[in-house]
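Comment thread on ticket #2218

A.B. wrote:
> Attaching the input chain for the structure job we discussed in standup.
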Amino acid sequence: MKKLTVVLVSIWLLAFLSFGACAADMVPAPKDAELEAGDWTTLSKRYPMSYLASDGEVPEAPSPEILSNWWDTLGDETLTRLIMYSLENNRDLISARAKFKEARAALGISKSAVLPWLDSSNTLTRSKTGKNGSASGSQIGPIDFYSLGIDASWEIDIFGGQAQKIKAGKADLQAQYGALHNAWVTLSSEVALNYTSLRTLQKRLQVAESNLALQMDTVELLQSQYDSGLKDGLALSQAKYTMEQTRSTIPPLRTSIEATMNRLAILVGQVPGSLEEMLGEYKPLPKPEAVDLIGIPANSLRQRPDIYSAERQLVAQIARKKAAQRDLWPKFSLFGSIGLESFTSTSGLSFSDGESYSFGPSISLPIFHGGAIRNNIKVQTAKQEQMLATYEQTVLNAVAEVRDALTSETQERERNQSLQRGVDAARTAYEVAQDKYKNGLTDFNNVISAQSALLIFEEQYAISEGQMLSNIVRVFKVLGGGWAPLTEGDLSQPVEEHATQARETRISSESQRYLEQIRQELKSTEEM
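C.D. wrote:
> Ran it. Output below, let me know if you need it in another format.
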């Protein structure tokens, strides 16, 4: 009767706890499912940009081939070499690769929890008891004691707690894949932006030195006329302070050029100063090929690595919350052991018939843990809400960045055209003012004013040329360009067969093998 009572109580506790666990699982569906199913193209058409797509149509984004190797559209061999160097040697990228390896190893730890564990316990002990410690008054020993044993244990994952932890580990690995992708995208764009800045500074230095040479010629002419008594000192002084003003702009430009070259050296993993031979001589800014960047390519945002990584982090946290809920359920385990014990003594006694074994099931029921399990569920739920908010914020930021980049690109192009007309007009005004001054038809103030205007317009035009190129680079960056992009299929499975067919970045064979290894490992985790 007592045994029956114990069994009934155990069944009642099991049913009660199982009901509590079921109740914990009955939570609203996560909002991220709605986000994943959102029609982003429709949303983008709902809020068109005022400066673009006046007909309301949203053209397609640049093709994946262009995005994966967007620097080819710039047609600058030096820039391409720098980007290749950076993808090989940049320390931040090496760190991102190491984090990916860490996530892969952590996933292996999670997978091992669902497998049986075997442990071997082996001991060898020699003991001796003196005469004073022996009940018989004679020495005992020495005695050698041998023990050999194998222990086995296996927690059967009936309710899926370990499976959820493995799912979280897979999502973490995918998130690190996205982080590695993001490091690649950021690095290639940073190299291009710094390269553009360098060429812009070199062009501005040329403009300043060219204007300084013209102003020095003017000062020399006025000095000759002043020495001959043909002109007073006012015009000469005006020319001198204009010349020195231009000369004073040159040292800061040279300082900025050196700093930019050092930043580029660090980005490509080289010692600062080692790129002087490659970058010291000025080359004109590259002229990109025509790329359709009009409109809001909303679906292309799905390939952005930061969005992909945030989405995978959310998936991982949802799995962790479910794993925490499974802690309310009972845990079933199997255990067993087999061993052999024997001892020998110097007196010739030997006992070897010491075989032993044990096996059986085990059921663990969480009855009272002081609210730790349910509080852990609340903790994981709160973290899920944080991850969801982060994911949504990442999407919103991505849309804003694309709109900003597209607007900046189109508006800077209009500004550049105005500055080009301004340079032509300022150069004509300077030539006219110079000619009139030589013929005595105007004073030197008009010449100085025309010189200053020409210098300002030429410098602003050089800055605008660099800014236009920088804006194009930023457009490619915000679209996730710089690596073979993630496709719609990649969102549910990080590596599909068609991903290996996408146009690859032209890097060394060693890095190609490394990337292929990463893709294969991700594919294998999805299949398991």
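A.B. wrote:
> Thanks. Noting for the ticket: The CA atoms of residues 159 and 326 lie 7 Å apart.
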